Description:
alpha/beta
Amino acid sequence: MKHVDEYRDRELAARLSARIRSAVSRPWMLMEICGGQTHAIMKYGITELLPDEITMIHGPGCPVCVTPAEMIEKAIALAGMEGVILTSFGDMLRVPGISGDLLSARSRGADVRMVYSPLDALRVAEKNRGSQVVFFAVGFETTAPAVALAVKEARRGGLSNFSLLVSHVLVPPAMQALLSDPEMQIDGFLAAGHVCTVMGYREYVPIAEKYRVPIVVTGFEPVDILLGIHTCIEMLERGHFGVENAYTRSVREEGTPRARILMEEVFEVSDRNWRGIGLLPSSGLSLSGEYASFDACRRFNLEEIHEKDDTPCIAGSILTGKKKPPECPSFGKECTPEHPRGAPMVSSEGACAAYYRYQHHKNTP
Ligand code: SF4
């Protein structure tokens, strides 16, 4: 595959691995933020190419995983309402809340539909004018522009039967929360390339300076990840901090201004609850005043639903990198991709699903 094979090249990966080994002189803890990078690290055995001094810890960058049970409960409540069609991405339908998941709601008769994009949900609304169609919008800065576009389209077309249950989150406040946590020791970050494709990387500069850490914008193929690790290790070994871009084929410093302008028009920054982590100030997006009439929470009076996530799942420890999936007593036993107990085992970007898929067989007779 053009533009992909070269970033999966074994010789190039081996050369980068050798350069990392010769650059490192002491232990370092690096966190990759994005669940897509976690999956690539596990899938391609990247940790096996690294010297023992480097420990990779996995961050909270899985949008399905960080969506709190409270939002799942709101989605289930919506799906159970007469005349409502609830739409979302496939993974969201299987994430457990407190009372179950959206697939169980569908088996009880609710109209729950999987879509591939918010614009698909808009099409459902156009074809079902007699129903209220709600799109359960989750994700980081990557998916927010498409959601913003859908709601703008809905307003332009006068679609009064379309609304959004918004659970969007932002990367920089999560990084700051991790760096402020006295239980954590993170020496450097690999920032998520696709988020930076939209947002650019200027907003990471004050974080790097405040906490004196290197932050390296990194892609998703094995060579991209090794290049990001190498850049980060070289900065650490030289005592440098700041932001470097190791994903120049996709990311520019200013990001994609049109996408950012679209987001700023439709959304405003708000406090947001993260699954297993809790309330992080200014860490989410909500519809701005001009688009507030498209907010499903307001339209259907869901603001009073506040469920506590008290399942035995240790998603909070997994999402902050304090524990690795095999340290969860349920991993591979009560909790598997077929019978997930928590969001990190459901999501295609979840750390527990990555460990199960690519490592569990090693420990299973
Ligand atoms: S293995 Fe299952 S129960 Fe344990 S943290 Fe992962 S998702 Fe939660």
